[in-house]
Design brief:
alpha+beta, FAD/NAD(P)-binding domain, nine-stranded mixed beta sheet, 15 strands, binds flavin-adenine dinucleotide, FAD-dep_OxRdtase, D-amino acid dehydrogenase
């Protein structure tokens, strides 16, 4: 949960690097040629949002929802016990020599005006926080530490929230496929047609991630969202305590390692591959390899045959901020398009949506 990551992917500097990222021998960004025709329009809007002014405005929107989210999460934690392998020790982004640390610190100064706290660390301070980086410390020119960031297991968190909601009387219809959102008139939704029959409600919130545009289109709502695939790899640490004590991101490899109880999760990569969610094990190995370069000792503590590979889709809008709010249908709201920050923004988006539902007559 990283408000520090609020900068959308189309910062002017990143857009200049896109070509390099695509043609790198170990690319962190990939585009499947077959999806190019379906993403051209989105891509042009992505580029249009990469000016300094647009990018900054989008970053500020993201920070606002992300900070509201942390506030909402902390208030839930005050009244309910949640166990999701959380850490509340901040996150650290380490910068290799010749990287973009100066430019990044400048952006952090701008983010600080909107409440994102940060500290610049030298090599000694990096090692004080994360001794596990000792073997590779000469790779780094410095780091930025974000004390307010948090982390955890998003799947466990979701189950915990489902438990709390159920205890409060919420009924979850799991394994139920929504086939169609049916509009009774041009201004109201009448019901959902689902694999278990029709379901009707006073208010509907469209929150289907990357699949949202597919169900919105027949209603005449065009959502500028495309799926961008990412990978995560999780390994059991079997009691080993020599790894990072908080999430550490290597800005050169674009790879993140996150401690989660007795496991370490690593994530990265961005692939434009449509709705293909197949797990490419090779890609998972590449994520793991990048982390081994930062934490070589990990190799002797994990069982390479017991690695959990996962892939998922980020529902990306061209600007970065999610689509949270009303539609032209009085009883249909949007809560989707959270891209790479869906968990970071989850509680804040939910708060905005629930305020909209309870404070206005929808
Ligand atoms: C590798 C990777 C790493 C990430 N790391 C982070 C991170 O560190 N921090 C962070 O904040 N975010 C992260 N994200 C982003 C985050 O996972 C997403 O933004 C978030 O999952 C979005 O949540 P969502 O509920 O909107 O959509 P989703 O999680 O995509 O959920 C949508 C749901 O709708 C269901 N659905 C779709 N169509 C239908 C239908 N017709 N009927 C019924 N159900 C349907 C799907 O099955 C799915 O369960 C990461 C994403 C990836 C891929």
């Amino acid at each position: 949960m990283t408000p520090s990551d609020a900068s959308p992917w189309n910062s002017p500097g990143t857009v200049r690097q896109l070509g390099k990222m695509l043609f790198d021998h170990n690319p962190t960004l990939k585009i499947n040629p077959s999806v190019i025709p379906s993403i051209v329009g989105w891509g042009l809007r992505f580029l249009a949002n990469s000016t300094y002014e647009r990018h900054k405005a989008n970053m500020i929107s993201n920070i606002r929802i992300a900070r509201l989210s942390l506030e909402a999460l902390r208030s839930i934690r005050q009244t309910a016990h949640l166990n999701y392998d959380q850490t509340t020790r901040g996150t650290m982004r380490v910068f290799p020599r010749g990287g973009r640390m100066t430019e990044f610190v400048q952006m952090c100064r701008e983010m600080k005006q909107w409440g994102v706290q940060f500290e610049v660390l030298d090599q000694n301070q990096i090692l004080e926080k994360e001794p596990c980086l000792g073997a590779v410390i000469d790779r780094y020119v410095g780091a930025v530490f974000f004390p307010d960031d948090e982390s955890g297991d998003a799947h466990k968190f979701t189950n915990e929230i489902a438990r709390l909601a159920t205890e409060l009387g919420v009924q979850l219809l799991l394994n139920t496929n929504i086939l169609k959102i049916v509009n009774g008139s041009s201004s109201r939704i009448s019901h959902l047609s689902t694999s278990r029959g029709d379901v009707s409600a006073d208010v509907y919130v469209l929150s289907l991630g990357s699949y949202s545009p597919i169900l919105a289109r027949p209603l005449g709502i065009s959502l500028p969202i495309i799926p961008v695939k990412g990978y995560s790899v999780t390994v059991a640490l079997n009691g080993w305590k020599g790894g990072p004590t908080r999430p550490v991101m290597d800005d050169g490899y674009h790879a993140m390692m996150v401690p989660m109880g007795d496991r370490l999760r690593m994530g990265g990569r961005a692939e434009f591959a449509g709705y293909d969610t197949r797990v490419d094990e090779e890609e998972g190995w590449r994520v793991l390899d990048d982390i081994m370069k930062i934490l070589p000792v990990l190799r002797s503590h994990i069982d390479a045959n017991a690695v959990l590979n996962w892939s998922g889709l980020r529902a990306m809008t061209p600007g970065g901020p999610p689509l949270v709010g009303p539609t032209s249908y009085a009883n249909l709201l949007l809560n989707t398009g959270h891209g790479p920050l869906g968990w970071t923004m989850a509680c804040g988006s939910a708060k905005l949506i629930s305020d909209l539902i309870t404070h206005r007559q929808v």
